[in-house]
TrEMBL record:
<dbReference type="InterPro" id="IPR046521">
    <property type="entry name" value="DUF6698"/>
</dbReference>
<protein>
    <submittedName>
        <fullName>Uncharacterized protein</fullName>
    </submittedName>
</protein>
<dbReference type="Pfam" id="PF20414">
    <property type="entry name" value="DUF6698"/>
</dbReference>
Protein backbone atom coordinates (compact mmCIF):
# COMPACT_ATOMS: atom_id res chain seq x y z
CA UNK A 1 0.00 0.00 0.00
CA UNK A 2 2.72 2.48 0.97
CA UNK A 3 4.65 2.14 -2.29
CA UNK A 4 1.62 2.65 -4.54
CA UNK A 5 0.36 5.55 -2.45
CA UNK A 6 3.69 7.41 -2.59
CA UNK A 7 2.97 8.65 -6.13
CA UNK A 8 -0.83 8.52 -6.02
CA UNK A 9 -1.16 10.96 -3.12
CA UNK A 10 0.84 13.57 -5.05
CA UNK A 11 -1.59 13.33 -7.97
CA UNK A 12 -4.58 13.60 -5.62
CA UNK A 13 -3.21 16.70 -3.89
CA UNK A 14 -2.72 18.32 -7.30
CA UNK A 15 -6.27 17.30 -8.30
CA UNK A 16 -7.49 19.18 -5.23
CA UNK A 17 -6.00 22.34 -6.79
CA UNK A 18 -2.78 22.55 -4.79
CA UNK A 19 0.68 23.09 -6.24
CA UNK A 20 3.74 21.87 -4.40
CA UNK A 21 6.02 24.48 -2.86
CA UNK A 22 8.76 23.52 -3.45
CA UNK A 23 8.01 21.04 -6.27
CA UNK A 24 8.01 17.36 -5.34
CA UNK A 25 9.49 14.36 -7.08
CA UNK A 26 6.67 11.78 -6.82
CA UNK A 27 9.14 8.92 -6.44
CA UNK A 28 10.98 10.48 -3.47
CA UNK A 29 9.87 10.95 0.13
CA UNK A 30 12.59 13.30 1.37
CA UNK A 31 10.96 16.48 0.02
CA UNK A 32 7.63 15.91 1.79
CA UNK A 33 6.46 16.62 5.31
CA UNK A 34 6.70 19.97 7.03
CA UNK A 35 9.60 21.19 4.89
CA UNK A 36 7.19 21.39 1.96
CA UNK A 37 4.55 24.09 2.38
CA UNK A 38 1.88 22.02 0.63
CA UNK A 39 2.35 18.69 2.39
CA UNK A 40 2.90 20.66 5.59
CA UNK A 41 -0.58 22.16 5.23
CA UNK A 42 -2.11 18.67 5.00
CA UNK A 43 -0.02 17.37 7.93
CA UNK A 44 -0.41 20.43 10.17
CA UNK A 45 -2.13 19.39 13.41
CA UNK A 46 -5.66 20.58 14.05
CA UNK A 47 -5.67 23.66 16.21
CA UNK A 48 -2.50 25.05 14.61
CA UNK A 49 -2.62 27.59 11.81
CA UNK A 50 -0.27 26.56 9.01
CA UNK A 51 -0.92 29.90 7.28
CA UNK A 52 0.60 31.72 10.27
CA UNK A 53 4.22 32.18 9.22
CA UNK A 54 5.60 32.09 12.77
CA UNK A 55 3.81 28.79 13.48
CA UNK A 56 4.91 27.28 10.18
CA UNK A 57 8.53 28.35 10.67
CA UNK A 58 8.57 27.05 14.26
CA UNK A 59 7.32 23.66 13.05
CA UNK A 60 9.79 23.60 10.16
CA UNK A 61 12.72 24.51 12.45
CA UNK A 62 11.70 21.86 14.97
CA UNK A 63 10.88 24.39 17.69
CA UNK A 64 7.38 22.92 17.80
CA UNK A 65 7.60 19.13 17.89
CA UNK A 66 4.54 17.43 16.46
CA UNK A 67 3.68 14.25 18.37
CA UNK A 68 2.61 11.09 16.56
CA UNK A 69 -0.78 11.39 18.24
CA UNK A 70 -1.53 14.76 16.60
CA UNK A 71 -4.33 14.63 14.07
CA UNK A 72 -3.41 16.25 10.77
CA UNK A 73 -5.73 18.58 8.89
CA UNK A 74 -5.92 16.07 6.02
CA UNK A 75 -8.32 14.05 8.18
CA UNK A 76 -10.91 16.84 7.80
CA UNK A 77 -13.15 17.62 4.86
CA UNK A 78 -11.66 20.52 2.88
CA UNK A 79 -8.90 20.80 5.52
CA UNK A 80 -11.33 22.64 7.81
CA UNK A 81 -11.41 21.93 11.54
CA UNK A 82 -14.23 23.28 13.70
CA UNK A 83 -12.96 23.54 17.31
CA UNK A 84 -16.51 23.72 18.71
CA UNK A 85 -17.65 20.74 16.61
CA UNK A 86 -14.62 18.45 16.14
CA UNK A 87 -16.64 15.63 14.53
CA UNK A 88 -17.81 17.96 11.74
CA UNK A 89 -15.93 16.67 8.68
CA UNK A 90 -13.65 14.47 10.80
CA UNK A 91 -12.30 11.51 8.80
CA UNK A 92 -14.02 12.89 5.68
CA UNK A 93 -10.87 14.39 4.12
CA UNK A 94 -10.65 13.98 0.35
CA UNK A 95 -7.12 12.54 0.42
CA UNK A 96 -8.20 10.09 3.13
CA UNK A 97 -11.23 8.97 1.10
CA UNK A 98 -9.11 8.50 -2.02
CA UNK A 99 -6.53 6.56 -0.01
CA UNK A 100 -9.22 4.30 1.42
CA UNK A 101 -10.72 3.65 -1.99
CA UNK A 102 -7.28 3.04 -3.49
CA UNK A 103 -6.51 0.42 -0.83
CA UNK A 104 -9.87 -1.30 -0.43
CA UNK A 105 -12.08 -0.64 -3.46
CA UNK A 106 -10.17 0.22 -6.63
CA UNK A 107 -9.70 -2.41 -9.35
CA UNK A 108 -5.95 -2.33 -8.64
CA UNK A 109 -6.63 -4.06 -5.32
CA UNK A 110 -7.24 -7.22 -7.31
CA UNK A 111 -10.65 -7.77 -5.73
CA UNK A 112 -13.64 -8.91 -7.69
CA UNK A 113 -15.69 -5.77 -7.03
CA UNK A 114 -19.00 -7.32 -8.11
CA UNK A 115 -18.66 -10.07 -5.48
CA UNK A 116 -16.97 -7.93 -2.84
CA UNK A 117 -19.20 -7.08 0.12
CA UNK A 118 -17.24 -4.26 1.67
CA UNK A 119 -18.47 -3.03 5.00
CA UNK A 120 -16.32 -0.18 6.19
CA UNK A 121 -14.82 -0.66 9.65
CA UNK A 122 -13.19 1.73 12.06
CA UNK A 123 -9.93 -0.18 11.72
CA UNK A 124 -9.98 0.14 7.92
CA UNK A 125 -10.57 3.90 8.19
CA UNK A 126 -7.74 4.23 10.73
CA UNK A 127 -5.47 2.12 8.51
CA UNK A 128 -6.20 4.33 5.48
CA UNK A 129 -5.60 7.46 7.57
CA UNK A 130 -2.25 6.06 8.70
CA UNK A 131 -1.27 5.25 5.11
CA UNK A 132 -2.34 8.69 3.82
CA UNK A 133 -0.41 10.46 6.58
CA UNK A 134 2.66 8.36 5.83
CA UNK A 135 2.41 9.09 2.09
CA UNK A 136 2.53 12.84 2.82
CA UNK A 137 5.43 12.48 5.26
CA UNK A 138 9.16 12.33 4.51
CA UNK A 139 9.54 9.11 6.52
CA UNK A 140 10.98 6.34 4.37
CA UNK A 141 9.15 3.52 6.18
CA UNK A 142 6.17 2.99 8.43
CA UNK A 143 8.53 1.50 11.01
CA UNK A 144 10.22 4.81 11.97
CA UNK A 145 10.18 5.18 15.77
CA UNK A 146 8.21 7.74 17.74
CA UNK A 147 10.85 9.64 19.74
CA UNK A 148 8.91 9.40 23.03
CA UNK A 149 7.25 6.00 22.93
CA UNK A 150 9.95 3.96 21.15
CA UNK A 151 7.21 2.37 19.03
CA UNK A 152 6.72 2.83 15.30
CA UNK A 153 5.20 6.29 14.97
CA UNK A 154 2.62 4.96 12.51
CA UNK A 155 1.44 2.52 15.17
CA UNK A 156 1.15 5.34 17.72
CA UNK A 157 -0.94 7.40 15.28
CA UNK A 158 -3.14 4.43 14.35
CA UNK A 159 -3.57 3.59 18.04
CA UNK A 160 -4.67 7.13 18.89
CA UNK A 161 -7.35 7.01 16.19
CA UNK A 162 -8.53 3.58 17.28
CA UNK A 163 -8.71 4.71 20.90
CA UNK A 164 -11.10 7.50 19.92
CA UNK A 165 -13.14 5.37 17.53
CA UNK A 166 -13.56 2.61 20.12
CA UNK A 167 -14.54 5.04 22.90
CA UNK A 168 -18.10 4.18 23.94
CA UNK A 169 -18.78 7.84 24.69
CA UNK A 170 -18.29 8.54 20.97
CA UNK A 171 -20.65 5.75 19.85
CA UNK A 172 -23.21 7.96 18.07
CA UNK A 173 -20.57 9.98 16.23
CA UNK A 174 -18.76 6.80 15.17
CA UNK A 175 -22.01 5.21 13.93
CA UNK A 176 -22.70 8.32 11.83
CA UNK A 177 -19.13 8.19 10.53
CA UNK A 178 -19.42 4.52 9.51
CA UNK A 179 -22.74 5.24 7.80
CA UNK A 180 -21.14 8.10 5.84
CA UNK A 181 -18.23 5.90 4.80
CA UNK A 182 -20.50 3.05 3.72
CA UNK A 183 -22.41 5.50 1.50
CA UNK A 184 -19.14 6.64 -0.10
CA UNK A 185 -18.01 3.05 -0.53
CA UNK A 186 -21.31 2.03 -2.14
CA UNK A 187 -21.26 4.97 -4.56
CA UNK A 188 -17.74 4.18 -5.72
CA UNK A 189 -18.26 0.41 -5.84
CA UNK A 190 -21.32 0.96 -8.05
CA UNK A 191 -19.40 3.40 -10.27
CA UNK A 192 -21.79 6.22 -9.31
CA UNK A 193 -18.76 8.40 -8.59
CA UNK A 194 -15.11 7.95 -9.43
CA UNK A 195 -11.93 8.81 -7.71
Amino acid sequence: DAMALKSAVIVWVEQEGFTFDPPINPSQKSDRGFTNNTTGKFLCPVGMNWLDISTRCAIQRGEIVIPSTAWPMMLYNCLIYYPNDPWNGFLHGQILVKTYMHIFVSPSTGRDIENFNSAVTISSIAYAATQARHALSPLPTLAMKDHKRKLPESRVFYGSLMQLLEDLEQKHEVEALISWWNQCDALISNNAISF
